[in-house]
Amino acid sequence: MKEIIDLLRDQGYTIATMESCTGGGVANAITNVEGSSDVIRFSAVTYSNAFKIKMGVKKETIDTYSVYSEEVAREMSYQIALFAEADYGIGVTGKINNDDVRNKRGDLNTAFISIYERHTDTYYTYKVKVEGNSRASSKDYLINFIVGKLKDILNGR
Fold first, then answer.
1. Cα(156)–Cα(66) distance, integer angstroms
2. Which is it for strands 40-45 and 15-19: parallel, antiparallel or unpaired?
3. Do the beta carbons of residue 121 and residue 114 sit within 8 Å?
4. Domain holding 33: CATH number?
C-alpha cells in the first residue's frame, strides 16, 4: 500500500472508498501508511442498501441488478469520488461467507469491485470469486486484489 500512497502523492491524485463487504478494510489499509492523509479524502462503509442510496447509489440500480452487482459497484465508486472530490473512487460490494436474507439475489462468495478514475471518466470493474475459509480471510483476499489492481492502474498498466 505504501507504493500506492507514493504513486498517488507523486501524481497529485486523491482517493476515496465506499465499501460494503470489505467493511472499510481498504480505507484501513490506506490509513495504515504514514502520510496517507495527503491522499485519502473520505471513506464510507455502507453495509445497508439504505446508506448506499443515501450516498448516491440509485435505488433503481439496486432493485434492477441486485445490491451485489457490477452496476452497484460502479455507482459506489463514482458517487464516492464525486462526494469526496477525489480523483479515484473505489466501490466494493459482495456476498461473502454468509447468505443475506434481505438480499436474496447474487452469488455467494462473489464480490464486485469498481475503481473509478475521475480525470478520465474511466471505470475498472472486476467480478471476484472469493475462496476464503473465513470472513476475515475473504476480506483480506479482496483487499489484496484491490491493492494489486490499483497499483496496475496507477502504473499505467
1. 32
2. parallel
3. no
4. 3.90.950.20
Question: In a structure prediction context, what are the per-residue pLDDT tens digits for the chain, which is 157 residues long?
Answer: 999 999 999 999 999 999 998 999 999 999 999 999 999 999 999 989 999 999 999 999 999 998 999 999 999 999 999 999 999 999 999 987 566 555 555 565 689 999 999 999 999 999 999 876 788 888 899 999 999 999 999 999 7
Boundaries of domain holding 124: 2-154
What does DSSP assign to residue 24?
T
Contacts by residues 126-135 (CB-CB < 8 Å, ≥ 24 positions apart): 127/70, 128/94, 130/94, 130/96, 130/97, 132/96, 132/97, 134/97, 135/96, 135/97, 135/98
